[in-house]
């Protein structure tokens, strides 16, 4: 039974449903111009938006300014992508009277917009994964009306950003209802349950993400839900890498852990090393003098302080960098990095207390005895993650003594994460076509998708095949004259007679 929406929410969903066919029919070039207009407007209003974001989130001006730029670049990337039509995956099988299984009809397949989508925005990326961030960009590029549920951690910024987006889309002539913003978890849940809404996206905690995913799946007509949830991003460092550039590894590690007060889904939460002693001094030196950083809100600060206490209170854990959390008169938490070490045996013994994500500037070094099968540690300790990283020396290549073990570790990483890194740090996520930002549960609710990169559009389209449909009534992407100039994968008549012949 469909729940009745409040009059306000009913108006929102009705506008989105009405806009769906009109927005899907907008020419790709016009949709691209509208998305670029949003990008340009965000950059034009950067100073005002960043000032609001600084006040509401405690993030630095440099971080937030860079995030606006990233958001604008992401929008422009999606604009170019939708015009190329590559995301449509147009396939044409020509009619074939000599088909290997009998007469084959003319069959053409293309991806079409799902319809209205609700996007639950994130707290830790108030631009890049919020009102106009990556999920929103992909939804709009796919041709779907977008309803954003604002995050309670930055409501004023959400309203200000929404005003910029609304004006830009209206100025570009997009249909009324193409973009709308709502506040409140109850409102977001009610919209997700509405049968006119055809999917959802989310960035946040495992608990809330699972709740929303279950709601989407439990609908009388279930809809796809794409959540980015939790990740601890394990790192492995070889002895040769430490000997070659231990100071650089320590410095990069501390920077990655402490950046944005560790409130990043890609923060390295665990580092497996052959010797903690070799990195202890350079880590302490790199952490020296890092100023305290405000956490996003009192709830997150309280949760981080409790998680930190649990980790520090686990037998065998010793601090390398003590760090701390200070609460001010407003209840806001201010943190400095905490980095601890533990032996592999104590990590095993305290696994349930240690293995879960600490959302803040904290990371754990695990000292691993020589000869340990590193590839076996991933399935032993972790579920899915967004990333896994390996630091090697220059000499550890294909012909090195440990090449077989390295290959096994890389394969194990590939089975459990969406992105494998060599000699870098996971907190840098390039906004580029090939990027994969996803992974097996609980990193995401759907490990075949990504929330960064042009493949993100694929989440918000569905396939439709057209059999023996005359040219005049085919979608433009499937017509023989190809007016959109999109890539078309064509299977010609007679080809089936040769399938498999080259392998005989």
UniProtKB/TrEMBL annotation:
InterPro entries: Ald_DH/histidinol_DH, Ald_DH_N, Aldehyde_DH_dom, Aldehyde_DH_Superfamily, ALDH_KGSADH. It holds the Pfam family Aldedh. Residues 8-368 form the Aldehyde dehydrogenase domain. SUPFAM superfamilies: ALDH-like. Keywords: Oxidoreductase. The keyword Oxidoreductase applies. This is Aldehyde dehydrogenase (NADP(+)).
